[in-house]
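notes to self, project folder thing:

trying the whole complex as one job this time. last attempt i did each chain seperately and stitching them together was a nightmare. two parts in total, labels are on each line so i dont mix them up again. if this works i'll redo the older ones the same way
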Amino acid sequence: EVQLLESGGGLVQPGGSLRLSCVASGFSLSTYTMSWVRQAPGKGLERVAGSTADGGTTFHADSVKGRFTISRDNFKNTLHLEMNSLRAEDTALYYCAKNRPLQSGLLFDYWGQGTLVTVAS
Amino acid sequence: EIVMTQSPATLSVSPGERATLSCRASQSISSDLAWYQQKPGQAPRLLIFGASTRATGIPARFSGSGSGTEFTLTISSLQSEDFAVYSCQQYKNWPLTFGGGTKVEIK
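result (full assembly):
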């Protein structure tokens, strides 16, 4: 059974940092592209970062580029999101998601339950 | 960037009734559309991809249709466990984008 368990969220002041982690089980992380997707209060889902199976290619949304960094440790089956220079608008529930490749793009076929990040003073 | 617009924002439906949710893309995405279900405190779940193909384990009461820019998710007879938020996602172009969601609530 595929499971994704996020951790690392919490309350942080503007300008602060957090590191989110996602431990995967039931499949080998080294085989799949993975993503971080967030949902701010009252807003839709937003893919903020992605990493190919070997970690060689990454994606960061313009909204987080230069501040967030996705990385992975395939030996530990763990995905990370390093978040720096946090802003109030980064407040959201952050989900780790496994991607399923299709001919034209990616689906998000399994998700974790999310970890809440609150940026406030 | 392709903008996905969902309507209505909230849909009030009685158990056993049909629910029809809409998703519109700002440009043609062929059939490269997925639907997800979100419930509070739970992991989101993939329901539909390819606009109309049910994911593994998804009940037949969920159906998707449409192509190009207009898409519909239909829940034929709402069960108690179907009251949730539903989001569409396009995977035609990068970046991947989602709609704002439709909340299906009990009438």
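what i see at first glance: The first strand of chain A starts at residue 3 and ends at 7.
need to look closer tmrw
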